[in-house]
Amino acid sequence: MTEHKATNVTFHHGSVTRDDRAALLRHKGATLWFTGLSGSGKSTVAVAVEAELTRRRRLCYRLDGDNIRMGLNANLGFSEEDRVENIRRIGEVARLFADAGLIVLSSFISPFRADRDRVRQLHDEHGLPFIEVYIDVSLKTAEARDPKGLYKKARAGAIKDFTGISSPYEPPEQPELTLTTDTMSLEDETAAVIAALEAQGIIPA
């Protein structure tokens, strides 16, 4: 539960409804939450889905872990406390974007199950679709890819609290969608995400 330090504040509702925005955009707002180990392929899949949705003329926006840490969350490190706050802030941003009618593609390791569940609850409380997409890949495969050289640094002790090495990753128990990026093609992964959006009525089939 977030502690509210601001006092004497009141939420102000506008006259434009979520249905109004959906009618304007011709699709519903929603958050797709891609979670998995570093190097699992979260960002790669999200980029491909973003391109396909844009090709279909659906308004979407991609929130990426490194990008957000360069701005909104530049003051956060990688301690457990900071990781919790990192995901809390992103959850709030994703919820606002989804409420505005966008399809949010959120790509974060988000290693702790409780943090992801809080983001899901936040969306549920506001009646917004939340689709958890588990990018399932073995640690061996992710470490072999190591596109940023982070696993090598973590093994050498240069990076502390690194997920999968010195900090745990808690996989989703009941994700809406699971993608195995070491056995699926990017085209099949993208198609699976689009099919999930169609099945939930977020975009028209």
TrEMBL record:
Keywords per UniProt: ATP-binding, Kinase, Nucleotide-binding, Phosphoprotein, Transferase
Gene3D superfamilies: P-loop containing nucleotide triphosphate hydrolases
Residue ranges occupied by any APS kinase domain in the UniProt entry: 28-179
Catalysed reactions, as listed in the record: adenosine 5'-phosphosulfate + ATP = 3'-phosphoadenylyl sulfate + ADP + H(+)
EC numbers on record: 2.7.1.25
BP GO annotations: hydrogen sulfide biosynthetic process; sulfate assimilation
GO MF entry, a single one: ATP binding
Keyword ATP-binding: yes
Residues given in the record as ATP binding sites: G36, L37, S38, G39, S40, G41, K42, S43
UniProt pathway annotation: Sulfur metabolism; hydrogen sulfide biosynthesis; sulfite from sulfate: step 2/3
Active-site residues from the entry: S110 (phosphoserine intermediate)
InterPro entries from the UniProt entry: APS, APS_kinase_dom, P-loop_NTPase
Family statement: Belongs to the APS kinase family.
Function summary: Catalyzes the synthesis of activated sulfate.
Protein name, as recorded: Adenylyl-sulfate kinase
Organism annotation: Mucisphaera calidilacus
Encoding gene, per UniProt annotation: cysC
